[in-house]
């Protein structure tokens, strides 16, 4: 069994008196696509933000290659090989995709290039923006790629394109971890699955074969 | 982390170089107004005041950066906020010194 490269272990997080995460666990394994599936508000974004160092949990730890990361920060984790795509646009809207790529590579030579790469990202459609963000993240040559809701609100053709890109990255050895609430998309894309409900996670084996009612929205309240 | 030479030549850093003097101008105007109201030379170079104003300007710029989620972009590039903001500090003091001497 391959060890996870990045993991959030036993994460507790609360805001005032409200528990958002309760001993949540999620990890990313090289060469595989892991999905974290759950309803809106179940805590997926929060656990990702803690995993990449954008939030501090009250309990638990983030581990990189099995070792605890003290006070994780995105910039530090990125230098180790993490790339993180949030559930909102994060490229500079006044700059083109090519401008962003040139910050990473003087002569960008990505496998995929589109005519809109020369236009300011603020003028692009949602699907074009998402593909541009993915191109920028992959240009960083990550070992771990964490994406929050990468398929949300996209046309089927764009979803297929992103799913294909994630598969190629995983085949190349990248540990891909993404959050989604579309179970059918997860069944078609993911190799491993965590289900999340009310801030708790659990690993789901055989999610393609088992009936949905057995593992999704089937948590004891 | 991307090489610093490439970061300083990037359009993103240049956009911050363009925005920062505009923020400096706003803060300087506010500072000059309060100084005049307090009866001291409005454009004089007062080191402690300049340090405070510079911190306010960097904070305002960082708020704009975060509002666009560009802190996540910078994080993905391996750039901590210190590398992004501290190179702008000399600009504040140069502009303030020039105005004080003029």
Q: What amount of the residues of chain B lies in strands?
A: under 5%
Task: Report Rg of chain B.
Answer: 15 Å
Given helix and strand content, the structural type of chain A is: alpha/beta
- The side-by-side strand order for the widest beta sheet of chain A comes to 6-7-8-3-9-10
**Mean of pLDDT of chain B:** 95
The unreliable regions of chain A are none
Sheet/helix structural class of chain B:
mainly alpha
Largest inter-chain contact set: A-B, 29 and 20 residues
Characterize this entry briefly.
The complex is a heterodimer of chains A (221) and B (102). Chain A is 29% helix and 27% strand.
Notes on the protein architecture:
The complex is a heterodimer of chains A (221) and B (102). Chain A is an alpha/beta fold. Chain A contains 7 helices and 10 strands. In chain A, strands 6-7-8-3-9-10 form a 6-stranded mixed sheet, with helices on both faces. In chain A, strands 2-1-4-5 form a 4-stranded antiparallel sheet, covered by helices on one side. The longest helix of chain A has 16 residues, at 156-171. The two termini of chain A are 33 Å apart. In chain A, helix 3 (97-104) packs parallel to helix 4 (126-139). The relative contact order of chain A is 0.20. The model of chain B has no long low-confidence stretch (mean pLDDT 95). The N and C termini of chain B lie far apart (40 Å). Chain B has helices at 4-9, 11-38, 47-67, 70-76, 81-85, 89-101. Chain B is built from 6 helices and no strands. Helix content of chain B is 78%, strand content 0%. Chain B is mostly helical and 102 residues long. The longest helix of chain B has 28 residues, at 11-38. In chain B, helix 2 (11-38) packs across helix 3 (47-67) and helix 2 (11-38) crosses helix 6. At the A-B interface, helix 2 and helix 3 of A face helix 2 and helix 4 of B.
């Amino acid at each position: 069994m391959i060890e996870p490269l990045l993991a959030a272990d036993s994460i507790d997080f609360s805001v005032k008196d409200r528990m958002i995460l309760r001993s949540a666990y999620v990890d990313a394994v090289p060469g595989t696509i892991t999905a974290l599936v759950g309803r809106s508000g179940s805590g997926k974004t929060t656990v990702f933000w803690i995993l990449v160092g954008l939030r501090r949990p009250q309990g638990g730890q983030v581990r990189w290659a099995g070792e605890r990361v003290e006070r994780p920060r995105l910039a530090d984790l990125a230098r180790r090989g993490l790339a993180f795509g949030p559930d909102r646009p994060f490229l500079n809207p006044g700059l083109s995709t090519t401008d962003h790529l040139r910050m990473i590579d003087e002569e960008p030579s990505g496998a995929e290039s589109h005519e809109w790469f020369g236009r300011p990202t603020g003028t692009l459609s949602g699907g074009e923006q998402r593909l541009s963000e993915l191109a920028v993240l992959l240009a960083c040559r990550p070992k771990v790629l964490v994406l929050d809701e990468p398929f949300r609100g996209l046309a089927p053709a764009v979803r297929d394109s992103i799913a294909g890109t994630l598969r190629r990255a995983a085949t190349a050895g990248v540990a891909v971890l993404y959050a989604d609430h579309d179970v059918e998309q997860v069944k078609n894309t993911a190799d491993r699955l965590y289900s999340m409900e009310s801030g708790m996670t659990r690993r789901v084996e055989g999610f393609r074969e088992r009936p949905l009612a057995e593992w999704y929205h089937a948590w004891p309240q | 982390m991307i090489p610093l030479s490439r970061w300083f030549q990037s359009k993103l850093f240049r956009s911050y170089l363009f925005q920062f003097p505009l923020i400096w101008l706003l803060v300087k105007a506010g500072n000059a107004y309060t100084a005049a109201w307090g009866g001291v030379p409005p454009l004089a170079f007062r080191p402690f005041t300049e340090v405070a104003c510079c911190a306010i300007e960097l904070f305002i710029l960082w708020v704009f950066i975060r509002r666009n989620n560009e802190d996540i972009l910078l994080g993905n590039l391996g750039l901590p906020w210190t590398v992004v903001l501290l190179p702008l500090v000399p600009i504040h003091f140069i502009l303030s010194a020039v105005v004080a001497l003029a």
